[in-house]
Amino acid sequence: MSQAYTPPRRAPRKKLKMPLFGNMGSGNSGQGEKIDWGGKNFTKLVFIVGTLGLLAQMFLPNLWAEKMYDTQGEILDLDLDGSIRKKYTDATNPNDIHYMLIVKQKDGTRRKLDLHIADPVFFDQVAVPQRLKKTAGSLDVLVTRFSKPDTTLTITFKP
Questions:
Q1: Would you state the pLDDT for residue 114?
Q2: What is the pLDDT of residue 20?
Q3: Cα separation of 97 and 10, whole Å?
């Protein structure tokens, strides 16, 4: 009987290493070096990631938040020339309903109006595709409509 050809045994491949972790987690548990979970690089990395996460929680919500125009003085001083992009209500508290309008200006900026202290008649008469023009110092808003002629509406505030 003839024996079948068996190729020579090859040496085991070298295990891959991750750049920051070294050989942590590679290889068999019974061979080679022991895994040092409290190693110098790993501890620094955990500290840096934790610090960045904490800083992100502190500063990012303030940076991403939009300016809310909700007082009578802010709405009076506001200069609008753009179109309504969103119109919704926030009625989480039934006693205090917030009427929200998001207006995209012609220069690309967004204005977020909260009309919770205003009379809801203005909010009911505007819709999403309409354009608004309002000058600073006045509460009269020119509303450009597609199916009706342009209308001037006045924002009134509750006493």
A1: 93
A2: 63
A3: 75
Neighbour tally for 104: CB within 10 Å: 14
pTM for the model: 0.60
**In whole angstroms, how far apart are CA 55 and each of 12, 43, 46, 51?**
45, 18, 14, 6
115 and 86 Cβ atoms separated by less than 8 Å: no
CA-angle at 66, arms to 56 and 48, nearest 5°: 5
- Tell me which residue range forms the domain holding 53: 14-65
Indicate the number of domains in the chain.
2
Residues 124 and 100 in one domain: yes
Q: Which of 65, 80, 97 is the last residue of a domain?
A: 65
Query: Residue 43 is encoded by which pair of tokens?
Result: 């501890």
Does residue 2 register a pLDDT over 80? no
CA dist., res. 111 & res. 74, Å (int): 11
